[in-house]
Amino acid sequence: IPTMDDIDLHSKKVLLRIDINSPIDENGNIIDDSRIKAHISTIKELIDKDNSVVLISHQGRPGDKDFVSLEEHAKLLSRYLNEEVIFVDDVIGPYAREAIKKLENKRVLLLDNVRLISEELIEAPPQQHAKTFLVKKLAPLFNAYVNDAFATAHRSQPSIVGFPLVLPSAAGRVMEKEVFALARIFNAEDTPKIFVLGGGKVHDTIRIIENLVRKRIADRILTGGLVAELFAASKGMNLNPKNMEILEKLGILSLIPRARKLLLTGAPIEIPVDYKVEVNGNVVEEPASKVTGVIKDIGSTTAEIYSSFIKDAKVVVLRGPMGVIEDERFKSGSKSVLKAALEGQGYVIIGGGHMVSALDKDVKLDSNKVHISTGGGALLLFLSGEKLPALEALSMSVVNSSD
Ligand code: 3PG
Predict the structure, then answer these.
(1) What is the DSSP annotation of 19-78?
(2) What is the pTM of this model?
(3) For ligand 1, is residue 178 a contact (CB within 6 Å)?
(4) ipTM strictly over 0.90?
(5) 154 lines ligand 1 (CB under 6 A)
(6) What's residue 172's pLDDT?
(7) Residue 32: CB within 6 Å of ligand 1?
(8) Which Pfam family is one of those matched by this entry (predicted)?
């Protein structure tokens, strides 16, 4: 794939796709800004080369609580860059286009949440996305497109795959670093490989598990969060109607046949033996066979069992928290598995903003032992050997820089 060294990026107007999709709390505050920090060096490099830089990113999905404007993100970007980042609450309208045209060299502008444009939710091939309103309205205003959004590299959406077909394009430094680092550290011979998979993106995760199992990449998959509940329900465990209702509402019960198929073919998938649940506002630990409350975290016995597996692994990949970590009372499962991974003998890859936010802020991480990826789903698809649409599109990029 072309990198920033392969196209002319001096005194140009550059469209930079970043992924600053961050975990957001009940009050709309950003809980973890590591994805925002990650892109600073790419932006700085483009400023140093006298480019004017327009940033484009998504946050959440329409209908979800974390589907918010990027105004707060702009403030954090300004703080870490030590430069004003102009925020424009528009994406492709006349106001945004005028602001882009007027943007001077060395200045940075952030457009609002790209998923305000409905096209951005459509998964389609690059050729189709190159003809979207988004690409047609924005591309003529730029000389180059840089994709630094490794974390969204698994989505075939217009802001990811549409621009490389019409603009000279390259991978940004975050994208480059992730792809090269992961390719180097993820060695097929290093076994056992343990995947600790939790969180709420169950539809994505089951697809990833299917890949990991088919290609025999994972020696053991330890589940938490809603992923664990899906497999527990698929095994016929009685999760209590309260939890089943939640799974049904989220459309997760429809995944039971796929989960059952995985279990029946002997996939090495482990589920919790106990949970931390909430009953009338109180936190209680309950065995998996007698759940009465709403499941909010894995229990302490599960955390212990998972930790012992993790400590002996050669490679540990953690993605998605074990519980509802936005609530301090349900953070301990995620903290335990992270602690075991960092204390263990294996190489640790941590992905997804939520899991990263469960790390202790003052813990010193050795980069020879730990890779903190900006990616969640993208990371796992990459590790499972699937082609990432963002990289495929970059490899089709037009080569000649136009002014
Ligand atoms: C992620 O957090 O995995 C990426 O930002 C992609 O977000 P999405 O799952 O809403 O497409």
Answers:
(1) -----B-TTS-BS--HHHHHTHHHHHHHHHTT-EEEEE---S-TTSTT---SHHHHHHHH
(2) 0.85
(3) no
(4) yes
(5) no
(6) 98
(7) no
(8) PGK
